[in-house]
Amino acid sequence: MSGAQETKELVCVGCPVGCPLQLTHEGTKLVEVHGHECNRGAKYAKQEFKDPRRGLATTVIIEGARWARLPVKVSNPVPKGRVLEAARLIHAIVAKAPVSVGDVLLTGLFGEENLEVVATRSMERV
Amino acid sequence: MLGRAFGTYDVVVIGGGPAGMAAALGARDAGSERVLILDREPEVGGILQQCIHAGFGLHYFDQELTGPEYAERFFTRVVDQDVDVQVDSYVSGVAVDSSGEKRVRVMSAEHGLVTVPTRSVVLAMGCRERTRGQIRIPGTRPAGVLTAGLAQKMVNMLGVLPGKRVAILGSGDIGLIMARRLTLEGCEVVGVFELMPHSNGLTRNVVQCLDDFGIPLHLSTTVTRIHGSDRVNAITVAPVDAQLTPDHSQARDVACDTLLLSIGLIPENELSQSLGIHIDEVNTGGPWVSSTLETSMPGMFACGNVLHVHDLADFVTREALLAGQFAAEHAAGVRRPKDDIQLVPGDNVRYCMPHSLSTEREHTIYLRCKEPMRPAWLSVGGDLLTKRLQFVVPAEMIMLKIKPDVLERFHGDTLRIDLHAEKGGAA
How sure is the predictor about B426, in pLDDT bands with cuts at 50, 70 and 90? Predict the structure, then answer.
């Protein structure tokens, strides 16, 4: 029992159960996790404690298509604290129809090689 | 494509969303040669096209997809399987002759008024949102009051923001997702207000859509008045008591230019009703269906949100594949024995689906609770089959498989489903 131990509470988002998690840590070192009903909870707690990230889906302008916006996603989760910044960067993209689902519109978001902005649907030119 | 339609279809599916596309594929899988999807929109995919967030496909594809990706996967299959698709086509009625043959009346942008003969019909029209009128919020009638799903279409497809400073009434998943979506687009979301003491959305949506962005969720609180002449300029909110009655002495005004309503969905059954199909008005708001998802009219099947409002598209897909399969069977002349067990909701069960069962095979039934319970004991037919569930919440459908040996004992009877806080206990 070290005096430096602190606790932090999280809700697991790994599945719809939403287990309430209690994390015990000493500074930046995670000591233990309680409250999870499966392994995903422990994994989520570790990731969330070390480097919280979130999936990001938004839209970009598309020209020459039936709709004014093309839905896109980032291929991997982005740092939680930079979600709004990522959205602003992505919103500067202008796509041109035709587009196919999976087309990469931007690579290396935030200089991270595995962060690609990808079209999530196909849109014909009209 | 309707050039081919002047013969007889085996199965005509009304609606091309997740339910309609899966029903058409289910029918093809089960051997129907000629299957047609009709949709009033300019493209199929239904509401999935505007649900640009991830969270689809975890059950069906074991992979997390966005709505448009989920839709496109099914559309690709629909094309591969030679299912005919007619968009910009509105179904105004279905005539049934004495032999059971059906003629679907379609108003098509391309072909004008067309009659399509078919053996089976699958109703897959989905649902629509409840509006201000249905909960009668007092106040003026300014611009800026709209449903969350409409705002979603405006933002995600039309590229139009509904406002700048947004309040949201109702914490259903669409409301939560729109809170995040509008924040990403630069709007200020001043708060989500929920009449009930618990959120109506999934916990992970509360965490990821509200908590992450510091958007407050006000439980047991409702909107009691809308202010503004041309445009909304404020709403009055007040806490509610256990009877859901607002306490006006604690009311306060919240400045905003937009109020989004995420206050529930209603199966869209005007067509079903006009055909004389029996609707379960009390529990689901959708058609009464047998264990083959057949409505009270032989050869007419229903699936997806037109039947009952689902929380996951994956479950819609599963249900619709079955409906398509049974529609194909019907088209091929197969007639199963009639169900002889009525399934009825008991304590803390808002509804269960389907409405009847047969003893000939295993069934998957879906139910929804009224109140959250943690844990909950699910019992089928008294103490015949009990199951402990970690938790139940109204936002999440419960799935249960029932084997024929359990059903044997209920021939000609009703089978009741209850949820209790304690094993063998009362509500």
Answer: low
